[in-house]
Amino acid sequence: MTWIDVQKIATLLASAQDSNNGTAARGRYYEDVLDYLFSGVPGCQAQRNSLNQFISEEVDLSVSNFREADGLKMLPEIFLVECKNWSAPVDSAAVAFFASKIRHRGCSLGVLVAANGVTGDPVQKTSAFHQASLSLAEGVKIILVTSADLVQIASIGDFVNLLHKRFLDLHCAGTFTLA
Q: Quick one: how far is CA 43 from the chain centroid?
């Protein structure tokens, strides 16, 4: 499995948190991290900042997944990635809007990368966890990844394992997890 440039990820994450960079620049740096990681997964290709034909919904990353043996075999052929480099946890309204983007694009999976997690309680399935649970019941799956997860990744294999584990945990818990 391919090793990654951990320093590059650390530098991009630091730039994404640097208050001297504008909000849009911080968001782009955060997207750069995910673009770098998904592009390193065997069989995956990422496309950035796709607008729908009505210019009403933008997707940060669209990922095509050819499901290679050492890639994302558990995940669907096409899925969406939403990067939220917010200083606060992502709320239920943002999770619901992301779920609608996934549905509108005919996809079944989205990866929500929320720098500081999401609102609510996973056991009680409140707030954002409730939205993830409702979406799952409607056939829309959302995997949650945080900045704390990203700094732990030392190889593409680590990234693949994280996504596979979160995908399985989603089905087992009935909402997204951070376990």
A: 18
DSSP 30-93: HHHHHHHHHHHSTTEEEEEEEEPTTSS-EEEEEEEE---TTS-TTS-SEEEEEEE--SSPBPHH
* Exposure b/e, 14-25, CB count within 10 A at least 16 = b: ebbeeeeeeeee
Q: Which residues pair with 142 in a beta bridge?
A: 110
The DSSP symbol for 112 reads E
Q: Are 28 and 48 in contact (CB under 8 A)?
A: no
Greater pLDDT, 19 or 28: 28
Tell how many helices (H) and how many strands (E) occur in the chain: 6, 5
Residue type, 117: G
Q: Which residues contact 158 (CB under 8 A, 6 or more apart)?
A: 152
Distances 118 to 12, 37, 63, 154, 169 between C-alpha atoms, Å: 22, 22, 23, 24, 16
CA distance 96 to 105: 14
Question: What pLDDT digit, counting tens, does each position of 27-63 carry?
Answer: 899 999 999 999 999 999 999 976 556 656 789 999 9
Structure tokens at 10: 């650390």
What is the distance between the alpha carbons of residues 54 and 89, in angstroms, rounded to a whole number? 29
